[in-house]
Amino acid sequence: MLQQFFLLCSGADKNLIAGCSEGEKTKFAGIGATVFFTAVMAFIAGAYALYTVFDNTYPAIGFGLVWGLLIFNLDRFIVSTIRKRERFGSEFLQALPRIVLAVIIAIVISKPLEIKIFEKEIDTVLLKEKNEMELSNKKEIATYFKSDLDKNKGDVSDLKSEIAAKEKEVNTLYETYIAEAEGTKGTLKIGKGPVFKEKIAKHDLARKELDTLRKKNLSLIAEKEAKTKTLQADLDRKVSQTQPIIEGFDGLMARINALDKLPWLPSFFIMLLFLAIETAPIIAKLLAPKGEYDFKLEDLETALQATLSQDKYQRDLLIRTSASMHDKVYADIAEDKSLYNLQRKKATELLELQANSFVEKQRRTL
Fold it and tell me: How far apart (Å, rounded) are the C-alpha atoms in residues 42 and 64?
């Protein structure tokens, strides 16, 4: 039962292979098994590749099944269409396009499986890239908000500087009128004279201005700080919004690029392994000696070719014979006097009718 299934996979004619020896059946069963297991690996590779894209099991299995059947059909077609020739060079030239196709299939099949085999190493590369992207993203967003944040910070600093300068002025005036009262500076007279009153009036005026300025600037500072908090919240929200995009940087293309950043030698040998598996049926067919099945198939094809050639020759001969017979018949008819006289009479009548018709037309135009 298993042998029959693998013979079906090999693409061999079941009627021809049924009459062959067990050794011949075993050879083709081996070729069919290679075709089948290559399709199985194609199914796994295709399913995993789509799973990395959509992260959904059922579509991945469906696509993998279709991809596996496609590869199975291609391999079966490639193997079944190779014919054994008398010279190896002719066989190789015949199989060369199929070998190229097998190489392409092997590369396509091996890539998703390489991604799965080196999954941990690829995850490490992707983690490093994600961290770099995250830092770069934060830097870009911070740069975008930097001008507004710096402007607010500068405005707050200026407002605080105004308050500090006014406070310093008030303190200086305070020290001045105290020193005047104590007689240590100014008029050097102890007591609250006219100069003292003038200086304390300046101090009181400056203090009122300070209170007004402080109230005004503190209100503006509160607004600026609130705006700064809003900008910072927007910055944090922007970072949070872009974070899932960075975390989702885990698709098929990202993994292929990450695989390319790993040492090439292990990946190359895995690709060679799949290349050997994919081309194994073709190589086996090329290297195998011409067997019983090949002789029977050649006999069947040459017999059909001979029959078709004979039919074509007979059709051509029939056409040539028929043409020759018709030539002779018409030659005999051409020599018949009675037919000649009849044809001459009819032609004369036709010419008379044409002449009469022409004369009538000329009369009508006059």
Answer: 7
